[in-house]
Amino acid sequence: MYRIAPRNVFVHESVLSDKRCVARMERMMGGITPDQPLTIVNDATLSEIARERQWGLVREWRTGQYKRTRDPDIIFHRYAWRSAQEQAAFDERYPELRVGLLRGAGFTGFRDGRALLERRNGICQNAHDLHSAWGCLHACDYCNIGTFLTIHLNLEEMAERLPAILDQHRWCRLWKYDNQTDTITFEPEYGASEAMIGAFARRATPSERDDQFLMLYTKSDNVEHLLDLDHRRRTIISWTTSTETVAREIEKNSPSTSARIEAARKCQEAGYHVRARFSPIVPVIGWRDEATRMIEEYLTRVRPDVITMDALALLGYDRLCGCFDMELLDPVYVEACRAIYEAKEHPGKPYWPAGKQMFPHELRLDILRHYVEQIRRHDAGVPISFCDETPEMWAEFSREELGHGPDDYVCTCDPDSVPGNPLLRTV
């Protein structure tokens, strides 16, 4: 696992009643060096800590704004598996714990694709996902999950409950785990990869089209623990891969571009289904040349079954200035973002035209068109999709260019984008 150096490690009292949780915590503590001794907390004291440290404002800030110089504080926790009524009562009593899995709940989540389209004009699909932690060690300037790190330890219970959850939602064939953290940075001491991959492998049937798949979501190169696991080809791994300057200067504490590509190559060689996310695409000075080099390196070493792309968004000009070293960024994009933010028709509104996007259509199109052209130089068959992009953007590209269209598409994490889907490239 990564070496972690937080100021504090808090241990929820519920952890101490489970020997397996204690053993897992002790393994992980071998790589954690806090400034202060471990502190035992209960719901009331954790709520007070969350209030004092303003953890409830986490989604309002980005890592680059508060210039994080230390690893986030860690909270070791245990899921409580409350009923809906019990959870409602808990939330009313401890409203400060509704963020970051601090309330001891949230193993499953739901992405409402229809709401995303209505709220921010972005095409997406409904899906369920899985979570056992919240927060990240990579310290990417644009991210909003870097303030603290909650790690749930009762993985055995999660694996035991998983079959019933999957059976309840058979329509969801791909289960993303975990987009609120990067769990493989905690491995193998955490043991989540082995637990979750094993749980899906045990459900394998002779026909891949008849079952559900796990998807690990990462930008880490910490993959050695994955290579010998018995995954039975029921696990997909999706890498967020960025250009050299972004990986080095903006996605701080993250592996290099080449290291991520090599990690994907190793896992594909080990039989995993591999996918690429070029996301978020940050328009740094020289982004076009760097993208060309990255795509060539990726597609000469790895054969993904789908590629998804997404331009930097959800910041606005004020956060852009607060998060980034502005000397890194293409001034054309900076000026366009500033003009939108200061426009008379919606002064101070950070996104355009609604909800998500911070760069105008024409500039995002310039990015995506370049990426599509470079991908097609090296790979004529891989399907290409856009993440939460506008219908207008999809209309700029033909079905022949992308391999599908906005009404019938595959991407890295939609609920039916699993091996056997005819829109996916067979690898």
Secondary-structure map with pairings?
Layout lengths: L8 E4 L6 H11 L9 E3 L1 H10 L20 E5 L6 H10 L14 E4 L1 H8 L6 E4 L2 E2 L13 E5 L2 H14 L5 E4 L14 H10 L11 E6 L16 E6 L3 H7 L6 H13 L3 E9 L5 H15 L5 E5 L4 H8 L7 H11 L19 H18 L5 E3 L4 H4 L4 H4 L25
Parallel strand pairs: 1-2, 1-3, 3-7, 8-9, 9-10, 10-11, 11-12, 12-13
Antiparallel strand pairs: 4-5, 6-7
Helix pairs in contact: 5-6, 8-9, 9-12, 10-11
- Looking at the overall shape, the CATH architecture of the domain at 105-133 and 155-402 is Alpha-Beta Horseshoe
For the largest beta-sheet, the strand count, sense and barrel status come to: 6 strands, parallel
Percentage of helical residues? 25-40%
Radius of gyration: 21 Å
Order of the strands making up the biggest sheet:
8-9-10-11-12-13
Low-confidence parts lasting 5 or more residues at pLDDT below 50?
Answer: none
Distance between the termini: 30 Å
- How many helices in DSSP terms? 14
* Outline type: globular
CATH fold field value of the domain at 105-133 and 155-402: pyruvate-formate lyase- activating enzyme
Query: What top-tier CATH class of the domain at 105-133 and 155-402 fits best?
Result: Alpha Beta
Class based on secondary structure composition and strand pairing: alpha/beta
**Strand runs, count:** 13
Nearest-integer average pLDDT: 92
Order of helices and strands: EHEHEHEHEEEHEHEEHHEHEHHHEHH
Strand content: 5-15%
